[in-house]
Amino acid sequence: MSEFLDQCRHILGWSHVLTEAHDTHPYLNDWRKRTQGTAIAVLRPGNSQEVAQITQLCHQHRIPIVPQGGNTGLVQGGIPDQTGTAVLLSLRRLNRVRQIDVANLTMTVEAGCTLQQLQTLADQANCFFPLSLASEGSCTIGGNLSTNAGGTAVLRYGNARDLCLGLEVVTPQGELWDGLRSLRKDNTGYDLKNLYIGAEGSLGIITAAVVKLFPKPNSRVTALVALNSASAALALLNRMQNLSGTNLCAFELISEYSLELVQQLLPELTPIFQENFPYYTLLEVASHENFDTLQTQFQEHLETCLQDELLSDVAIAMNEKQSADFWKIRESISEAQAKQGRNVKHDISLPSSIIPQFIERAQTALHQQFPSSRLVCFGHLGDGNLHFNVYPPTDSKAEEFEMIETRINRCVHDLVHRFNGSISAEHGIGVLKREELQRYASELELRLMRQIKAALDPLNLMNPGKLL
Amino acid sequence: MSEFLDQCRHILGWSHVLTEAHDTHPYLNDWRKRTQGTAIAVLRPGNSQEVAQITQLCHQHRIPIVPQGGNTGLVQGGIPDQTGTAVLLSLRRLNRVRQIDVANLTMTVEAGCTLQQLQTLADQANCFFPLSLASEGSCTIGGNLSTNAGGTAVLRYGNARDLCLGLEVVTPQGELWDGLRSLRKDNTGYDLKNLYIGAEGSLGIITAAVVKLFPKPNSRVTALVALNSASAALALLNRMQNLSGTNLCAFELISEYSLELVQQLLPELTPIFQENFPYYTLLEVASHENFDTLQTQFQEHLETCLQDELLSDVAIAMNEKQSADFWKIRESISEAQAKQGRNVKHDISLPSSIIPQFIERAQTALHQQFPSSRLVCFGHLGDGNLHFNVYPPTDSKAEEFEMIETRINRCVHDLVHRFNGSISAEHGIGVLKREELQRYASELELRLMRQIKAALDPLNLMNPGKLL
Question: ipTM score of the complex?
Fold first, then answer.
C-alpha cells in the first residue's frame, strides 16, 4: 500500500494525496451528515491526464475508486463504505472552462466546475445555462451529469442529460475517451454518452463535458396560485401549457402543510393569501419579450383560469424582488421541514395525469397505518416529480424511526410501483436506494444493467456497491 | 430449415411467413433501389409477444434477425445481406396506439405505427407530435427510434431520442423488456432506453414506445431570406435565436445552386427574389399567440436584421398556402437533385459556428481535385446539419462514379473529422457508412461499442453486419 501511495504522490504531488483524518474528513462525510466513509486516501488530480494515470494505477493494484464532485449527493453515492479498501477521487481541481462557443451555443467545461460557476459564465456571455438546483453553489457539473440532476428548470429545458452534447470519460482501465462533441445531431453508433450520464460513476469517470447554452430570456414573471385540490393543480398545468406554450418554465406544487412550515420559518414572507388553501403552485413564464408584454399576457391567461374556476386566488409578482420572494418560499421548504424534525423522504415521479389520484391513495394508505403521520408534499408537478415526505406519528419514539421509515417507504413505493412511477426521480440510487431498486426493478432490467457493468468494468473497480 | 419455418408458421400463421420472391421482394429491396437482400423468410408478427416468440426461436436455431420498419432507411440498415442466412422481421403489423394521455402529454404506440399516423392522432387530440421528415407517410416510429431520426423540427424539439420517454424491447434472447415509462424524470439505473435508440436494431428489437406530445402551437409564420454568404446565414441564425427565443423552430439553409435545381423542377414556385444570391434560408417561428401578433413580431425582427445588413432580402409568407410553398421549395431539393443526375451524398454535422469556414474549405479542396464538380449544399443549419452533396465532374464517365465517390467522400469526411464533426448526422451507419465509421471513430470508442454489443448479443444475431 505504501508503494501505491508513493506512486500516487509521484503522479499528483504530495499535497494532493490526503491521508490524514483532518484532511480527508470533509470528503468522506456524507452531505446529510448521516454516515462517514473510510478510504486509503483522498486523491485530488488536477487534470484529465492525471485522472487517467491514477485510474491506470488503481487498475494495476486492483484498488476501487469512488469518484466525487461537490459531495452534495443525497443518496450516499459519492462517499466510500467503511471497509477502507477504496480511494476517493475528488474531481474538484478539474475546474477549467475549456471553451465557450457563443455562436454554437455550447460550452466545454471540466467536471469540477461548480454549477454556479457555469451559470455565471453563461450569463456573462449573454447566454443562459438553465440547470438550477438548491446546491448549485457547491455541486459540480461532473456530479450533476453522473446523477442526471433535475431541479427547477426541467419543465422547459430538461434534465442534466438533455443539456449535455458530449463527454470526456476515463474508463475503468484508465483510458481517456474523447467524446467531447459539440454537435446537435450525431448518429454514429451506440449512445455511450447517455450510458455514462446517470451511471453514478460506476462505469467510468466523467472528466469534462460539452453543455448546451440557450439564448437568455429577456423577462420572467412569477405567480403564486391558491387551489382547492391537487386535481385543480393538474387542470391548471394543462391549461397553462396550452396558453403559454414553451414560455411556461416552472410549475411547482406546495401543499398547505408545506406552506405552514415555511410560515413558521419565514413569517415576514407570508401570508400571501387571506385564507388557507389545500394546495398552492408557483408558476413562472419566461420569454424573449419585454417584462410588460409578458406580464400582461400572463395576467390575461391567469384571469381566464380564474374565470373558469381552475384556480381560487392568485398573486402575480410585480418585480424581480417579489419573484425572488415567491421562490424563497418554495426553496425554504426543505429547511423548514428539517426544523420540524426528522421525516421519511421520497423523491418520486409519476405520469402527471395520475398525481392527484396517487396523492389521495397514498395519503389514505398512510393514515390507515399511521393515523397521526403528517405529509409534506411539494415538488416539480410540471415534471411529475413529487417530494413526498412523511413525518412519523407524533407519539412515535426516536428509536422506532428506522422501523417506521421502512414501513412508510414500503407503503409509498409500492403504490408508486403500481402506478408505473419511479422511486428515484432526480436523486439517483447510490447506497440509500439500492435495495429499493433491487426490489422494484424487473429481473431482466437488473440483468441487462449488470451485463453492461461487467462488460465495461469487469473488475468492479468503479464506485462498487453503488447503484447495482 | 423447414422445421424452423414450420415453427414460424405455427407462431404467426401461414400468411405471415413469406418465402415467395414476389411476396418478399418489397421487403428485401433497398429504399434507394441500389441493392437487394436475400432472406430465409420475411416474418410478420402481429404483436410484441409474437416478436418475442420468433426471437426465441431464432435464438434456439442461431438464425440472425434483420428488423425492419417502413424500409425507408438511407444506409441499408434494414435489409439483409445476400447470404440468405437471416430472416427479415417486419414490424409493420404492430401498429396499434395503446394509449393517449393528454393530461400527461404522452402517447404509447407500437413500433409499426407510421410517423404520419402519430402526427394525425396527436393533432386530433389537440396536441402536437413534432417529429417530421420526408418519408413520414411510410416510415415507422420503431425505425425512427432505431435510427434516432432527425428531420426539420430538431432545432426546437430535438431528435427522435429527445421525443421518447420509454421503450418496450425484445432482447436477442427473446425476452420482453417493459421499459414503457411515461415519466419525465427517472434516475433508477443505466439509461437502457437511449442504448436501444439509435442502435439500428443491433441490440434488440423495439416493439413499442412512449413518446412526448406538446401543446399545439396556435400559429406559425414562415419566411424566405436571401443572403450574401454562409457567414451571414450563421449571423442571422444567432440573431434570430436571441430575438425569437424558443419561437424559432426552423432554420434551413439553401445554396444558390440548390435553388437553381428546384427552379428547373418547379418553375411556378420561383423566383421569389428579383436577383440571385449565394444563399437562402427558410425560417419559421411558431407560438401560442395568434397569427397576426406572431407575424408582426417576426416582421419587426427581420426588419432589424435587414437594417443591420444581416440579410439582403426577405419574403414573409402571408398565409398557410405561402408557407407551404416555401416548404415545398426546401423539400423538393432532393427530387430536383435526382433529376439532375447521380451525385455523392453526405449527411454531416458540425458545430454551427464552424459551418461557414467548413463550406469554404471543403469547396476549395473539392475544386482542387475536381475543378468542374458542383456542390448542392443545403440542410438544417440550425442543428449544424448539412446535406453536402457533390456532382462529379461533368466530363466524368458513369463507370468512374464509384472511384470518384470514394475520393470525394475522403475529401469531405476528412475535413469533417478535422473539424470535430460527424460523418452521419441523422441517417445512421447501416452498411453504407460502416467502413467510414471504422476509419474515423477512435479505437477506444469502437472497442466500447463492441463490448456492449458482445454483452447484450453474444451470439451476434441482431442485425449482424450493420453499424459495427
Answer: 0.97
CB–CB contact A154 B199 (8 Å): no
Q: Is the pLDDT of residue A231 over 80?
A: yes
Instruction: List beta partners, residue B314.
Output: B225
A187, B198: Cβ pair inside 8 Å? yes
Rounded to an integer, what distance in angstroms lies between the CA atom of residue B45 and that of residue B113? 14
- The reply to whether residue B187 touches residue A147, judged by beta carbons under 8 angstroms, is yes
Which strand (E) or helix (H) includes residue A440? helix A434-440
Residues constituting chain B: 468
Q: Which residues on B lie below 8 Å from A217 (Cβ)?
A: 245
Per-residue pLDDT at B237: 98
Distance separating alpha carbons of residues A210 and A98, to the nearest angstrom: 9
Say yes or no for a CB contact (<8 Å) between B181 and A422. Answer: yes
Instruction: Give tens-digit pLDDT for B118-164.
Output: 999 999 999 999 999 989 999 999 999 999 999 999 999 999 999 99
- SS3 (DSSP) at A391: strand
Q: Which of A384, A388, A380, A383 is nearest to A359 (CA)?
A: A388
Q: Which of A423, A444, A456 sits opposite B175 (nearest CB)?
A: A444
pLDDT per residue as tens digits for the range B282-338:
999 999 989 999 999 999 999 999 999 999 999 999 999 999 999 999 999 999 999
Among left, alpha and beta (phi > 0; psi -120 to 50; other), residue B190 is beta
Q: Smallest CA–CA separation between A66 and chain B, in Å?
A: 17
Residues in contact with A170: Cβ distance below 8 Å, sequence separation at least 6, in sequence order: A48, A51, A52, A55, A176, A177, A204, A205, A207
For A404, the grid coordinates are 417506521
Prior bond of B130 cis (ω within 30°) = no
- Is the distance from CB of B142 to CB of B90 less than 8 angstroms? no
How distant is the Cα of A37 from the closest Cα of chain B, in angstroms? 23
Which pLDDT belongs to residue A236? 98
Q: How many CB atoms lie within 10 A of CB B385?
A: 29
Phi, psi torsion values for A136, nearest 5 degrees: -60, -20
> How close B19 comes to chain A (CA, Å)?
32
Cell of A323: 419573484
The pLDDT confidence band at residue A413, using thresholds 50, 70 and 90, is very high
Which candidate, A432, A297, A280, places its Cα nearest to that of B293? Answer: A297
Residue type at A288? H
Mutate to test the interface with A, among B190, B294, B346, B463 (most CBs of A within 10 A): B190
Please answer yes or no on whether A181 and B420 come within 8 Å at the CB atom. Answer: yes
Average pLDDT over residues A229-247: 96
Mean pLDDT of chain B: 96
Question: How many Cβ contacts (< 8 angstroms) between chains A and B?
Answer: 251
Candidate from B177, B187, B452 with C-beta closest to A190:
B452
Phi, psi of B185 (to 5 degrees): -140, 130
pLDDT at B271 over 80: no
DSSP letter string, B162-215: GGEEEEEEE-TTS-EEEE----S---SSS-HHHHHTTSTTSS-EEEEEEEE-EE
Amino acid identity at B401: F
Instruction: Give the C-alpha separation, A316 to A298, whole Å.
Output: 9
Residue A365 pLDDT > 90, yes or no? Answer: yes
Q: Residue A31 has what pLDDT?
A: 83
CA distance B300 to A194: 40
Mean pLDDT across the stretch A69-84?
96
Contacts of B268 (CB under 8 A, 6+ apart): none
How do B347-349 and B374-380 pair as beta strands?
unpaired
Place of cell 500516487: A8
Give the up-direction half-sphere exposure of residue B121: CA atoms within 13 A in the CB hemisphere: 22
Instruction: Work out the number of other CB atoms within 10 angstroms of the CB of residue A402.
Output: 10
pLDDT confidence of B54, banded at 50, 70, 90? very high
